[in-house]
Records
---
Amino acid sequence: MGPPVEPAGIESFYLEDRTIEPSSGFRERALISDPGVYDRAEADWEGFWAVQATELLDWFDPWDTILEWKLPFVRWFVGGTLNVSHNCLDRHVAAGRGDRVAFHWEGEPGDTRTITYAELLDEVERFSNVLESLGVTRGDRVAIYMPMIPELPVAMLACTRIGAVHSVVFGGFSSDALRDRIVDGQAKVLVTADGGWRKGAAVPLKANADAALGDTPSIDHVVVVRRTEADVDMRPGRDRWWQELMEGAEPHRAPEPMASEDLLYLLYTSGTTARPKGIMHTTGGYLTQVAFTHKYVFDLRPEEDVYWCAADIGWVTGHSYIMYGPLANGATGVLYEGSPDFPSRDRWWAIVEKYGVSILYTAPTAVRTFMKWGTEEPAKHDLSSLRLLGSVGEPINPEAWMWYFEHIGGGRCPVVDTWWQTETGAIMISPLPGVTTLKPGSATRPLPGVAAEVVDDAGSKVSEGGGYVTLTRPWPSMLRGIYGDPERYRDTYWSRFEGRYFAGDGARIDEDGYFWFMGRVDDVMNVSGHRVSTTEVESALVDHPSVAEAAVVGAKDATTGQAIIAYVTLRAGYQPSDEHGQSLRRHCATRIGPIARPKTIVFTDDLPKTRSGKIMRRLLRDVAEGRDLGDTTTLADPAVVEEIRARAQSAPPED
Ligand code: WTA
């Protein structure tokens, strides 16, 4: 079978034909099991979102206008007022659900805390008063640089309560990254901790922050949570201990009524340039779509479910699906501070068993790591409480999907592969687990109310085949811009295809209209004039029983334009050898086509990753292009592996 030639799009050769229907038991109990929801939403999509905003949220004042759209600037629920912390806390407590657990928190050393909605509200009210006592008022920016401890949700919700804008900086970022974000957002207060626990060691957050604070004149005060008891420098007048401030804080603070379009938060994300973009999210539309997607994509039953999104709150996944979606829906969540292999590689499965987790949401990179560690780790624990699994962050290879489905979900839990971005704020393309026939490796179709299309280079719609992912109309949780840079906002997202939002991803649409994501467009290789997705070749490699993880890059090649270089980590029990490399190359050729046969296979013990778990392909490409890797298999060449390691350590923590 030769590859189809589609010069205008992105070619896709990887054929995956397994399908999995929702079980009748799941379908019967699901919140949505009627496929008619898609057509009804489509018939009046503005009205559809307005119904969600009414049903899922509490408004102080109703809106006058559902939508104002003047490309690329959008306003939703104009004239409406609400408060995010009121929606996440007060209304649940007022309805008699104050004793429900908001978070089962577990620190890496094994310390735990159970936090009810009433307790969370109490701390949020106090910290709201603390922030105001430090001079923070409506509209001010507050930077937050913290480990995954209960004070992090408290700080974020307190900002939303008084109408301040939070800018959470992932605790794994360096002081330079923190400084740049504080400066760009002109934050007045920084909330941090003495440190946090990671793989048994204390990460020195306050010391990192001190290095940044030399160049951040906007910061008046720093609030420091005691967590690791590390010695820290406290600058008199500027730095204050969280615990001391909270003891003296007034207990009550009413939620500030905010306009639907008031800025809720900034979250920085990297693009094609080195300078991070401050993505802006506002209040009413954002909360509507995160609550909607969290409820229906995860089929949430807040009275019964224990929901665990195992991301870090410092990323958008944590903002939308640890914090705002689950809390708006009154869910009970798990919050875990540390690493999955501390003290041993079954830590996650111990947590699932201990708290009876029923919904687990994680990333393909985690799934592939667990594959590498072997099925005996999850097998040590009773995972029968699980009923639904989710995936986010990158394309999930069919083999990883099946492994997750079988070895974590016991073959009974639907896997929802959810596509979205920091910029989209909430899930856009994903199954509805009681409706959608699943295809392992596909995020399936746009959710009700969402419109997405794949287009070719000229911007024409592709009904079947490969191309660029675009969104064809505004959605409630859409980014409102890049902080301080409206031109960059227009250029990055709205100029490539007229009238469309350009997501920067490639995908294939199959005969059922399902989306098969193929990674960022700049991760697409061009081999002998054929475009091949790095993700597709990776899927083929991971499909081989010996392969735990693979990263594929296109390196410049005099003959073919680009050549495929594959970095491969083997599962326990397999040895790298020349012969093995040849069989992997043959495997790719068989699975996808001769065009996908890697020129070089480099065996390595570990792949270089960002702190969020994304493989640093750019670095691998540089390594591949910077040296002659030969034209066949490179056996665990120590020099290459050393170079990857050294450069991963010195590279900035973003991708
Ligand atoms: C990728 C994370 C395939 C994609 C929420 C997107 C995915 C980028 C998926 C956004 C998925 C995320 N399938 N690719 N289910 N989810 N991506 O901003 O390339 O950290 O553009 O947001 O991750 O990453 P971000």
---
Amino acid sequence: MNPDNFETIHIDTDLLILGGGMAACGAAFEAAYWAKKNNLKVTLVDKAAMERSGAVAMGLSAINMYLGLKDGKNSVEDYVNYVKTDLMGIARDDLVANIARHVDSSVHLFEKWGLPIWKDDEGNYVNEGRWQVMIHGESYKSIVSEAAKNALRDMGEKGEYFERIFITEPIMEGNRCVGAAGFSVRENKFYIFKAKAVLDTMGGAVHVFRPRSVGEGLGRSWYPPFNSGASAYFTLKAGAEMTCQEVRFVPVRFKDSYGPVGAWFLLFKAKATNAKGEDYMVTRASELEKWAPYGTAKPTPANLRNYLMLLELEEGNGPIYMQTGEAIKEMVANIPDEKEAKRKLKMLESEAWEDFLDMTISQALNWAAHNIMPEKQPSEISACEPYFISSHSGASGAWISGPEDLAPSNHFWGYDNMTTIRGLFAAGDASGASSHKFSSGSFTEGRIAAKAALAFCVDNPETASIDEAKVQEIKEKILQPLATFEEHKDYANDEDVNPNYIKPRMFMFRLQKIMDEYAGGASVGFKTSKALLDKGLEFLQYMKEDAEKLAASDLNELMRCWENIHRMWQAESHLRTILFREETRWPGYYFRTDFPEMKEDWKCFANCKWDPGTGEWEMVRREVMEESKK
Ligand code: SFD
Ligand code: AMP
């Protein structure tokens, strides 16, 4: 494929939304309203088709963030406390509160657009846990993306969305982000998007670490294989400050098919046990005291729930089981009427299957394939490999401005959700330190960020001029893997093995091996140390040199090349931040064997920044504020 045959397409807009997931859909929906008022243009670009792109592609069985503020059961402060405790004391109150006070209205919109939310006999939402509501959510993403697309369509020429365009690089003018570059994954087209404000919502990252499923199972992971670190790469390359890059997420899931556990723990009140049937949350409760005050709080933070399970495995007490059968039996045990008990049992069985069919069909297939009847037998659960997803129980992302009325003065610099780079905003998995926003909170944060980004466009109406030489330079760099392949492909008789280049698949395996073995992946029980991290960093530098030799035979491989470069940057910022934080604060996510305890003087954010001018990394501590302004 000849890179010279690529047409260059220029798109000029006011607000550029990168990504088409939950945060992007929220952004498009909100932007349409504010842009119309100010006669501004909004453009959205997704690497995939919005109807099924991002983490919600397969559907979901619950909305995990709903406060029910109108019923007075919960308050915004309750939610902030919950999130901060779950993250072992490290969270931005202002950001969490900003999402929490608006999230309910987003959920009501989803319902209005046709998302079926479970209701009880009185017509109230059925809660899974305190903050989660159950949905029939197989088509969740289709419903939400349709609303976002409609909002853009309603804007006429002032609203547009592009699908199957892979964004690779930020375009900068000094300390201001003025656009993005990318390419079509279907046609020989290279794109330059020029904008007054850019909103990064390209999700988190998977396959940075070696997955548990390899070979024939490669691509099977909890997090969707198509989110590959573009968000973090984009903000890092722009020179933005990042936060919590060490706070990866290791979910516990049904083993090998990654079915969700939340409904089992919270709705069905199931217990997880070791092979001897012991409930390790009870037998190992004393371990939690070491991690007080978070370890002794309720609910136990997600990483500590993992940690107790990992201790069982270290002692050889696996497999670990979700006791599904016992849970279902207990739920019908107190129903005296036999017919009613049978009816309830049938209902519970179908709810259990739907939990998987709504969002992780492969888990239902796994049950069917292994003759597992959840009402009779337990199922194995296991800790996955690490992922980067700040909207769930991880926290890695850009360091952003909070809202003026809630943020302490050093957490506010003009516009909600603006990164430390002018004109560059972030939301969803792209913004850090505001965990537990999930699908509904990410959509809501997209709305908040888009409104602020449009205010920025109004206040900063000047447009950038990107000169043709710069465009050409970016284009050549992005298409280089095609040129490298063309130049050397005939050297060897196997396209994939060639001393002059490396294919993205091999590159990814190499990255995953480094991260798994040196940065505390699943195969080493999530343990690492300075000695290992230093070695890992050394290997990563060699990888960075070799990234210049990535080769692509077609557009799909070109995308794979860039996905892996994005992952490599996510990896480096992660590794550097784990190294910087000399304590263990999230055992169960990772464990520093050389600093095995949590330390009071590390109760702070560990932030990092890459300087585009010098190529140097800078690590800084930022204070955790205990109260948001009211
Ligand atoms: O419970 C580029 N999440 C759940 N949230 C819930 O509310 N309920 C659940 O039941 C949830 N479950 C769950 C969840 C996540 C995952 C992975 C699983 C299960 C298996 C969390 C939410 O899904 C999550 O919080 C939001 O989706 C986050 O929103 P956002 O917008 O930050 O990310 P996205 O939706 O994944 O979208 C990313 C978009 O970026 C695009 N993209 N576009 C252009 N160029 C590039 N280079 C790009 N790279 C990526 C993507 O195509 C996508 O459009 S439970 O089991 O945990
Ligand atoms: P999951 O299916 O694990 O993603 O969980 C869905 C929701 O339930 C998230 O909000 C989790 O934080 C929460 N959750 C899952 N398991 C537990 C548990 N054992 N205790 C408390 N909350 C949980």
